[in-house]
Amino acid sequence: MRKRALGVSMVAIAAVAASLTGAGAASAAPASKPIPNSTPGWLTHGKNLGAASPNAPVTARVYLAPNGGLDALKAAATAASSSHQFLTPAQYHAKFDATAATVSAVSAWLTGSGLHVSADAAHRYLDVSGKVGDANAAFGVSIANFTHDGVSVQAPTGAASVPDSVAADVIAVAGLDTTVSTVKPLTQKPSPPSAGFRNAPVCSTWYGDKNPTNTPAPDGTALPPFNGAVLPYSPCGYTGPQLRNAYEAGKAAGLDGRGVTVAITDAYASPTVVADANRYATDTGDPVLTAGQYTESLPGSYTQVNSNKSPKQCDASGWYGEQTLDVEAVHAMAPAANIRYYAGKSCQDSDLLDTFTRINDEGVADIVTNSWGGVGDVVKPTLLQAYETAFLQGAVEGISYLFSTGDAGDEASAVGSPQTDYPASDPYVTGVGGTSTAITRAGVTGETGWQTTKYALTGGAWTVSVPFLYGGGGGYSSNIPEPDYQIAAGIHSPNGGRALPDVSMDGDPTTGMLVGQTQSFPGGAAYDTYRIGGTSLASPLFAGMTALKVQASGHGLGLLNPAIYADHSGFHDVTGAGIDAGNIRVDFVNGLDSTAGYTYSVRSFNTTNTTLTVGPGWDTETGWGSARAGWLAPLP
Q: What is the rounded distance in angstroms from the CA atom of residue 516 to the CA atom of residue 412?
């Protein structure tokens, strides 16, 4: 889809420097300010082993503010997303790249302390290298050796500082703390994705069409009612035709995503994704990817591939499953849309951030779906403002960024207190949560929030085995302020934080999507299918539907949330009606076949074991609800 390029200069917007508070380290030079979010988040529980050698090596990346400042870029992104008058990448760089004078001034500060500097071609950042002693002097820190959370690192003992003269030009620094910051794919599959998995054959083709009354358990096990009700078996996994029939019923003729490009970001790249997607499409009654419909943007090499390193970081094969799900889900909802895959060379934040650089500078994509994220946001990420700059550049160019909200509910079971996940909690992206969804031949006949308790069959009765197994992410951010569009819509945030999710789609792995992938089985690699869920499914489903909206509009949309919160009539309000208390899951004990027998469980829908709730209007489990054909109406 061609972006609308702004033919005249935008009205100049005065730059407003970000307010920076707090004190630098004891060794900081006078007239300096701390760099935002540069204090290691783990510092309060780390063990200081003493000062690092002044001759130890240091590498860092200093991110530069856009020309005019972040506030000017935010205003431009909001205005462009309202008028749908967008810049081309070349126009963006001419207007917002840091100037040569800025690069020179920041470089002079760094080289003056003995550090070596090289600048990114678009002036987004400066790569810095040198010795600990030089970095201590430049950033006003004391770099020490630490252990924390099972790793040994080198890090500053407090916030890094920057001279007043260039304080407004520096938005982030990464690398002084050598802790590896990684993200993870947000899928839920019943076994490690690097190993093969097959669904047991006792499952429902359409929601609710099989239950223990009409289809006994394969080994004769008696499956009792659950709280007095006979529950159906879980769906085998919804296919593209089923999902389109459910969510897109009533859409305008001809809407199939044609002419629109959906970008997908993940780490690494599956070598079998096209063959897998085409076989899956053929087997489920959808068209295959045509020549040129799927393309890739890959890095020159990959790092952190081995999942067996200590500490474990990235598992390339696990990301292959994520990529496969994303491609097949987008294609399911928008069969004619182009898909362009952008691979990060690892699962580290900086490498995923690099995919956004490529997306924004190519200017090919209209929508970007991201099915990964960090855990919680009680500590602002070091690269928060660098991430935001990327999202804002995309918005100015008409690109819409979507993120999965996470699969751990309110995160309390993982981090000890209710939190949302970043980057989904950024106000300049759309956070997509998950639902438990009943899809029949009549369409979506029931929906509720996805929060699961697992029940095991013990002594002929269903008993709780895992009080909280997983669930769609939501709630209120610990430190990302509630944006104006949520305040204007009447969303009450009890702590003043950004509320999530914005919208939702099917995400519960019990009612998830059937996908096809080449996997590792005992006899070797082979293609097979399995049901999968997670908000990693919800985001590409919504991206595919939004591709139809872009097609109908004839142009990109930029920031989606202001429009969603101003008019959410295109979304079905999820209240928990029309769906059972849960489903019975039948699984192979070994995940492959019946040789080791079967295992049975009930996976509940909308458990009350978190702070998240579902109900009329916007709620912390499903946001404004799930998209329907009304969302596909064009915007002028």
A: 33
Q: Which residues are paired to 59 by β-bridges?
A: 129
pLDDT in tens, 450-503: 999 999 999 999 999 999 999 999 999 998 999 999 999 999 999 999 999 999
* Contact indicator for 372, 186 with CB cutoff of 8 Å: yes
Cβ neighbour number for residue 464 with a 10 Å cutoff: 14
CA distance 370 to 267: 11
Strands 184-185, 116-119: pairing is unpaired
The answer to whether residues 51 and 143 touch, using CB atoms and an 8 Å cutoff, is: yes
List the structure tokens of 223: 């499956």
Q: Give the global pTM.
A: 0.92
Burial of 371 (0-12, 13-18, 19+ CB in 10 A): buried
What residues contact residue 252 under an 8 Å CB cut-off, 6+ apart?
552, 632
Which tens digit of pLDDT belongs to each residue from 404-426?
999 999 999 888 899 999 999 99
Q: What average pLDDT does the chain have?
A: 91
Distance, CA of 133 to CA of 137 (rounded, Å): 6
The Cα 135–Cα 115 span in angstroms is: 7
Q: Strand, coil or helix: what is 89?
A: helix
Which amino acid is residue 412, in one-letter code? A
CA-nearest of 243, 283, 613, 296 to 450 is 613
Q: Which helix (H) or strand (E) holds 443?
A: strand 443-449
Q: CA separation (Å) from 474 to 41, 415, 528, 616, 619?
A: 22, 14, 33, 16, 9
In this predicted structure, the answer to whether residue 591 has a pLDDT above a threshold of 50 is: yes
Number of H helices, E strands in the chain: 13, 29
Q: Residue 306 has what pLDDT?
A: 60
What proportion of the chain, given as a percentage, has pLDDT over 90? Answer: 84
Question: Containing H/E element for 297?
Answer: strand 294-297
Distance CA 430, CA 419 (A): 17
